From TrEMBL:
Function statement: May be involved in the degradation of misfolded endoplasmic reticulum (ER) luminal proteins.
Family classification: Belongs to the derlin family.
Species of the source: Arion vulgaris
Pfam families given in the database record: DER1
Top-level lineage group: Eukaryota
A GO-annotated cellular component: endoplasmic reticulum membrane
Protein name as it appears in the record: Derlin
Renumbered residue ranges of the record's region Disordered: 219-255
A biological process from GO: response to stress
Compartments (UniProt record): Endoplasmic reticulum membrane
Record key words, sorted: Endoplasmic reticulum, Membrane, Transmembrane, Transmembrane helix
Membrane topology: Multi-pass membrane protein
InterPro entries according to UniProt: DER1, Rhomboid-like_sf
Transmembrane segment boundaries: 20-42, 62-82, 102-135, 156-186
Length: 255
């Protein structure tokens, strides 16, 4: 019975999130069991360029050490990945997995560039934070619960995680990179076209639509900027859709 419950739960995970979640379990287990050395998974510019080890940018986003104190942090990453990626794909990007795959692809490419420039070995932390940040911006007024019963608006959650890791973690830079990349996507895909009347600078490539065809039951826009709800007398100043629109469903961290 328990195995059936686990199978039903796994099958219920949205398509793109399922691939990401599964890879984030398999790759660390391969390293932990010694099937391959973890050194094959980390981001390394010289190996990528001069040895043509082209898998490294992908495995660097999926691998995380499981031993020692890193194990708990890995479980927290899995929780945030599953929770917020599922919410984004099931709500804002419902019925359009290609658009959500593009979100992950865009964030991942940005983080690979940052990783090479800043000499980062692993990208799981910032990639998960970038997705969490986007959900929090689309649900910024939703009240979430954190440790010890603290409650605050979702818009503050990425910064609280950044401060938490700044104080007792690894310095917070990985979280900060995730926030920057998440904001870049959010600004280019949603805020710039909507609040500033700019052109749509990001578009989903056709090959993603072929890999992840649209499904019935999605929401209007499929992750694109929705029609403006600014009133004519707003004049483009203040009170835009970002203040009045309820972006998706909100859930508490512990849900």
């Amino acid at each position: 019975m328990a195995s059936n419950d686990i199978g039903d739960w796994y099958r219920s995970i949205p398509q793109v999130t399922k691939y990401w979640f599964t890879g984030s379990i398999i790759v660390p287990l391969i390293g932990r069991l010694g099937i391959l050395s973890p050194l094959w998974f980390i981001l390394d510019f010289s190996s990528f360029i001069y040895k043509f080890q082209i898998w490294r940018p992908i495995t660097a986003a999926l691998y995380y050490p499981l031993s020692g104190p890193k194990g708990f942090h890995f479980l927290m990453n899995l929780y945030f990945l599953y929770s917020y990626s599922t919410r984004l794909e099931s709500d804002t990007f419902a019925g359009a997995p290609a658009n959500y795959a593009f979100l992950l692809l865009f964030n991942w490419l940005c983080l690979v560039i940052i990783g090479f420039a800043a000499d980062l070995a692993l990208l799981m932390d910032p990639l998960v934070l970038s997705v969490l940040y986007i959900w929090c911006q689309l649900n910024k007024d939703q009240i979430v619960s954190f440790w010890f019963g603290t409650r605050f608006k979702a818009m503050y959650l990425p910064w609280i995680l950044f401060a938490f890791n700044l104080i007792i973690g690894s310095g917070g830079m990985l979280e900060l990179f995730g926030i920057v990349v998440g904001h870049l996507y959010f600004f280019l895909m949603f805020k710039y076209p909507q609040d500033f009347g700019g052109m749509q600078l990001l578009s989903v490539p056709n090959f993603l639509h072929r890999l992840f065809p649209r499904r019935q039951g999605g929401v209007a826009g499929f992750g694109q900027a929705p029609p403006s709800r600014r009133r004519p007398d707003d004049g483009g100043n203040g009170g835009g859709i970002w203040e009045r629109h309820n972006w998706g469903r909100g859930n508490q961290l512990g849900d």
